[in-house]
TrEMBL record:
<feature type="binding site">
    <location>
        <position position="58"/>
    </location>
    <ligand>
        <name>Ca(2+)</name>
    </ligand>
</feature>
<keyword id="KW-0694">RNA-binding</keyword>
<dbReference type="GO" id="GO:0003723">
    <property type="term" value="F:RNA binding"/>
</dbReference>
<protein>
    <recommendedName>
        <fullName>Ribonuclease J</fullName>
        <ecNumber>3.1.-.-</ecNumber>
    </recommendedName>
</protein>
<feature type="active site" description="Proton acceptor">
    <location>
        <position position="374"/>
    </location>
</feature>
<keyword id="KW-0479">Metal-binding</keyword>
<comment type="subunit">
    <text>Homodimer, may be a subunit of the RNA degradosome.</text>
</comment>
<dbReference type="GO" id="GO:0005737">
    <property type="term" value="C:cytoplasm"/>
</dbReference>
<feature type="binding site">
    <location>
        <position position="170"/>
    </location>
    <ligand>
        <name>Zn(2+)</name>
    </ligand>
</feature>
<feature type="binding site">
    <location>
        <position position="81"/>
    </location>
    <ligand>
        <name>Zn(2+)</name>
    </ligand>
</feature>
<comment type="similarity">
    <text>Belongs to the metallo-beta-lactamase superfamily. RNA-metabolizing metallo-beta-lactamase-like family. Bacterial RNase J subfamily.</text>
</comment>
<dbReference type="InterPro" id="IPR055132">
    <property type="entry name" value="RNase_J_b_CASP"/>
</dbReference>
<feature type="binding site">
    <location>
        <position position="85"/>
    </location>
    <ligand>
        <name>Zn(2+)</name>
    </ligand>
</feature>
<dbReference type="GO" id="GO:0006364">
    <property type="term" value="P:rRNA processing"/>
</dbReference>
<keyword id="KW-0862">Zinc</keyword>
<keyword id="KW-0698">rRNA processing</keyword>
<dbReference type="Pfam" id="PF17770">
    <property type="entry name" value="RNase_J_C"/>
</dbReference>
Amino acid sequence: MPNDVYAPPALPKGTLRVTPIGGLGEIGRNMTTFEINGKILIVDCGVLFPEEHQPGVDLILPDFTPIKDRLKDIVGVVLTHGHEDHIGAVPYLLKLRQDIPLIGSGLTLAFIEAKLKEHRITPYTLQVKEGQKERLGPFNLEFVAVNHSIPDALAVAIKTEGGSVLHTGDFKMDQLPLDNRITDLRDFARLGEEGIDLFLVDSTNADVPGFTPSERAIGPVLEDVIARAPRRVVIASFSSHVHRVQQVLDAAHANGRRVALLGRSMVRNMTIAADLGYLKVPDGVLIDFKKAGNIPDNKIVYMSTGSQGEPMAVLSRIVNSEHQIEVGPGDTVILASSLIPGNENAVYRIIDGLTKLGANVVHKGNAKVHVSGHAAAGELLYVYNVLRPKNVLPVHGEYRHLVANAKLAVQSGVPVERAILAEDGTVLDLRNGDVKKVGQLDLGYVYVDGSTVGEITEADLTDRRTLAEEGFISIIVVVDKSTGKIITGPEIHAKGFAEDDSVFDSVRPKIEAALAEAAQSGSHDTYALTQVVRRTVGRWVQASFRRRPMIVPMIIEA
């Protein structure tokens, strides 16, 4: 939580207010609001995937608190591309107001419409493409082609009375992309000539020197690995990585293999991409998973989800022997994606598990089976020099990425005070080319846990971690209502703490003595007695075992 939380002042007419709601200090939850003259435009609305210290959590959403009371003022949501960290929270926003217009490219809208169908929401959409201009209330929008690890990504220029903003979304500058659609630096240069007052720019690879390699470098490597594989090949990637799936289809085809798609989201997204022409499927290559078992082991490739070690994704289930595919000696598994920060341990557990099963595991660490979708430092410097923005706000990255990006901006000539380091909830006002920090909102994580949204708190997660790491002890004592003396108990049960409940024999007399002392002092209140038991057992456990389990006493009056 930010230390310097303070409310912004009323927004003056003609001033553009920019507030990152998510995506600063994290890889995910990307969402920024732009407000002027009483109207709000949102760019992106994504999710963050949970880490190990958030047990039981399915997704993490941006905190919609700043806009919950302003839903009628939202003129639209611009979606820069179809990755989950940019579109995944849209269903939860539309549950607050279903008719908020969604603006995006053909593939992006197709992905979000399929997702919304599962939530039984039919959205209002406006399909746009590079070069197109649209007006939404006080916002004049212009869309620019950018290259990323998913087709049809767009940057958006937002022109208002308060100033001009360019938001890159996620991008890189692959000069030989698979779909021949490069980041349009000519449009960037033209926008720069017209004047960019504030540049919001992808920071994910800002601390990586040089240039991100081309996607085309991956194809021959995949083809070679598949050619040398003696048995089955399982390849894991993001379910929306159309370019990577295209390369897998082409490599399998070149080696005379068939491909079966695994995972509901993978099947859904690739069906959409193929129907819209973004995925070119060679004749006869795709086969339904149910029929794949009839294909010889050396003639099949499985394209799956689970490259980040997600517990419910296909690859994790294979490792845990909970999937129809049983990986063994001679099989090859390729992890064809990057490591999202925070997922390292989960991914290495998957690699170890697959290796124990006898598989040959190929990943970014030992072969060139993935390149990033984000611009490295060299590309970012090019863009700064082309645009010459007045102010820069690094977005989309952990704090070290934001700092590295701000330093690049300064190296390219942006004054240090105009390379703005912000965090989720920082409120920035833009007027006459000047950007000022005017507020800091207290925004938190909103957890999705099963069917509940926002009900799980940090305290709940602390309890879950305690249960997982330290165990659980329950103590049941029946006491006389009038005297406070023990009638039955203490009855002690533990989970995840000790092999045998006999270890508690030494603490029972301590509980009895503590309750007798409390009764003598006239304390018969069940809550007070509960606290007496909790303190007594807690001190004993800490002294005897150096542990801090969850202790749940229950005092019953009779």
